[in-house]
UniProtKB/TrEMBL annotation:
Pfam families with a match to the protein in the record: ABC_tran
Record keywords: ATP-binding, Cell membrane, Ion transport, Iron, Iron transport, Membrane, Nucleotide-binding, Transport
InterPro entries associated with the record: AAA+_ATPase, ABC_SmlMolc_Importer, ABC_transporter-like_ATP-bd, ABC_transporter-like_CS, ABC_transpr_FbpC, P-loop_NTPase
Protein name stated in the entry: Iron(III) transport system ATP-binding protein
ATP-binding listed as a keyword: yes
Molecular functions (GO terms): ATP binding
PANTHER family, alphabetized: SPERMIDINE/PUTRESCINE IMPORT ATP-BINDING PROTEIN POTA, SPERMIDINE_PUTRESCINE IMPORT ATP-BINDING PROTEIN POTA
Coiled-coil regions, chain positions: none
Domain ABC transporter intervals: 3-231
Length: 339
C-alpha cells in the first residue's frame, strides 16, 4: 500500500519547516528521505506517524486519507510501525517481551521467531542493557516488524550503530524489509546509507524536496549540483563563462568537457568526478597539498590559485614539488547555473 504526501506544509511557530511537499512512497519499496540536519526529514516522518498534527495538505495510505488538517489519529491507531535512532526498547522488559508488546495475545509466542529473523536467535530472555548497540537496534527492528504493519517509518535507525556493523545491518535490514513487503520510509542524513538501502530517494533541502527518484535517476540526471554530489567521488567547483570555455580555479576547461550544453548563465556550479580529472604538470599554479595512495590509484588534493581545492583520483604519478592544472575527461562535467 503506497504512502502519499500531498502538498504538505508545516511550521513550528515562525519556523517554516516544510513547504509544499508532494511525493509517493510506493508500496513494498524503501523510500529514503535524505538531507542535512534541519531540512525537515523528521517533521515529515512525524506527520505520517501521528507524532505531529498535519497543518496543511494530507497524507494518504492506499485510497484512504491517513491524516489531514481535520483528522489526526494517534500513532497507535495507524497501521504504521516506528523505529528511531536509539531503538527505544523498554529497558525493564526482556527482548521477547519487548517484541511481544505490540502483538495481540494470540500471537505473543511469535516473538522468538521475530528475534531469530533479525539475527538474535535464543536471546529472548536477555534485557536491552545486556546487548550491544547493534543488537538493540536489531531488536527494535523486530519489535516494529512483528505486528506486520503495512508501513514502517524509520528515523536514522542505524545512526547509533558502529560504523563497521552499520553497513552489514542495513543490508540485512533491506532484505528483511523487502521480504516483509512493507512500505518503508527511512530518514537519513548519510548519502552512502541512502544509496545502499533505498529503492527511491527524496533529496531534501531547506524544507523542500529538490529531487525524487531512483538512485539511477539521480545519478543520470541530477536536478542540481548538490544532488549529484551525493555520489561518492563527486564534487562541486565554481566556474565562469570564458572566451573559449569555462574558467575554473584549476585551469581553462574546453566545452567538450561538458555533458550536455552550457546553461545560459554567467557563473556555474560544476559537478565533477574525482576519477574523471587528469592532473597536468604544466606549471600553471595548482599546488599539491596531499598525495594519498589508495591501492591502484592515488587520491590527490590540489589547491588552485584562489585557495579552492579539488580532489583527483589518478594512476598518474604526481610530484608534490611541481605545479599543475587539472583537466576533466571529455563529457564528464555537468554545469548548473549558479544559484
Ligand atoms: P531533520 O530531521 O531533517 O534534522 P527536523 O524535521 O527535525 O529536521 O526540523 C526541521 C526544522 O524545524 C529545523 O529548522 C528545526 O530546527 C525545526 N524544528 C523541529 N522541531 C521543532 C520544534 N519542536 N520546535 C521548533 N522548531 C522545530
Ligand atoms: Mg531528524
Amino acid at each position: 500500500m503506497s504512502l502519499e504526501f500531498r502538498h504538505i506544509a508545516h511550521a513550528y511557530g515562525e519556523v517554516r519547516a516544510l513547504e509544499d511537499i508532494s511525493f509517493t512512497a510506493p508500496a513494498g519499496e524503501i523510500t529514503c528521505l535524505l538531507g542535512a540536519s534541519g531540512c525537515g526529514k523528521s517533521t515529515l516522518l512525524g506527520l505520517a506517524a501521528g507524532l505531529l498534527r498535519v497543518q496543511q495538505g494530507e497524507v494518504t495510505l492506499g485510497d484512504e486519507v491517513l491524516a489531514d488538517a481535520q483528522r489526526s489519529p494517534p500513532p497507535e491507531a495507524r497501521p504504521v510501525g516506528l523505529v528511531f535512532q536509539d531503538g527505544a526498547l523498554f529497558p525493564h522488559m526482556t527482548l521477547a517481551a519487548n517484541v511481544a508488546f505490540g502483538l495481540p495475545k494470540a500471537r505473543r509466542g511469535e516473538a522468538d521467531s521475530w528475534l531469530a529473523k533479525v539475527g538474535l536467535a535464543g536471546m529472548g530472555a536477555r534485557y536491552p542493557h545486556e546487548l550491544s548497540g547493534g543488537q538493540q537496534q536489531r531488536a527494535a527492528l523486530a519489535r516494529a516488524m512483528a505486528p506486520e504493519p503495512r508501513v514502517l517509518l524509520m528515523d536514522e535507525p542505524f545512526a547509533s550503530v558502529d560504523i563497521v556493523l552499520r553497513r552489514k545491518l542495513r543490508r540485512e535490514c533491506r532484505i528483511l524489509l523487502r521480504e516483509a513487503g512493507a512500505t518503508v520510509v527511512l530518514v537519513t542524513h548519510d548519502p552512502a546509507e541512502a544509496l545502499d538501502i533505498a529503492d527511491r530517494i527524496a533529496v531534501m533541502e531547506g524544507g523542500r524536496i529538490i529531487q525524487f527518484g531512483t538512485p539511477q535517476e539521480l545519478h543520470h540526471a541530477p536536478a542540481t549540483a548538490s544532488v549529484g554530489a551525493i555520489f561518492s567521488g563527486a564534487q562541486i567547483i565554481s566556474g565562469t563563462r570564458g572566451a573559449e570555455g569555462l574558467d575554473t580555479p584549476f585551469g581553462l576547461w574546453p566545452l567538450e568537457s561538458l555533458i550536455g550544453a552550457l546553461p545560459d548563465a554567467p557563473a556555474f556550479d560544476l559537478l565533477v568526478q574525482a576519477d574523471g580529472l587528469v592532473p597536468v604538470a604544466d606549471g600553471r599554479g595548482c599546488s599539491v597539498r596531499d598525495v594519498h595512495p589508495m591501492g591502484p590509484r592515488d587520491r590527490v588534493l590540489l589547491q588552485g590559485a584562489d585557495g579552492a581545492a579539488i580532489t583527483v583520483e589518478t594512476a598518474l604519478p604526481v610530484d608534490p614539488d611541481k605545479t599543475y592544472s587539472v583537466l576533466p575527461d571529455p563529457n564528464s562535467v555537468r554545469a548548473f547555473a549558479r544559484s
